[in-house]
Design brief:
150 residues; mainly alpha; elongated
Length: 150
């Protein structure tokens, strides 16, 4: 047994119980990651939304507007992907069957390719530490960051 208390430094009495188990600090997975790398993770195609949510929930980036902007923008790109996949694509397929147009899947594929290109483009921009705001999606992301500050 120690002669002095590890918390306050007071002398310990012989036979007195120690302070007991110390609570373990909660480990923040973003404690050692840079803002650029956290932003980069948000733009990984199809799975960046997981990193974006983690970044937005992280205490470390709570006051970093730039990283939060990229997290929101990456999240909104994923939402655009979902909208094309679940809404636009089935609509184009159904309308293609109705009007007998053989290229009904081409429109959805082009939209998906454009979203994939946006993900890759933003990965490159963030890697070069450039702040780039995508049309429409970037405005939404900026608004989300601003609303959270107030």
């Amino acid at each position: 047994m120690d002669q002095f208390c590890t918390k306050c430094g007071a002398p310990q009495k012989a036979g007195a119980p120690g302070p007991g188990p110390q609570p373990q600090p909660i480990h923040d997975p973003f404690a050692t990651i840079s803002g650029r790398n956290a932003s980069r993770l948000c733009y990984i195609p199809w799975v960046g939304w997981i990193a974006a949510i983690a970044v937005l929930a992280s205490q470390r980036f709570r006051s970093d507007a730039n990283v939060r902007f990229h997290a929101f923008q990456g999240l909104y790109i994923f939402v655009a992907w979902l909208m094309v996949e679940w809404v636009v694509s089935p609509f184009l397929i159904a309308s293609g069957f109705l009007i007998g147009m053989p290229f009904h899947r081409l429109g959805a594929s082009l939209l998906q390719l454009a979203i994939l290109a946006a993900w890759v483009f933003m990965l490159i921009k963030v890697s070069h530490d450039e702040h780039y705001k995508l049309p429409i999606i970037g405005d939404l992301a900026e608004r989300s960051v601003t609303e959270q500050r107030s």
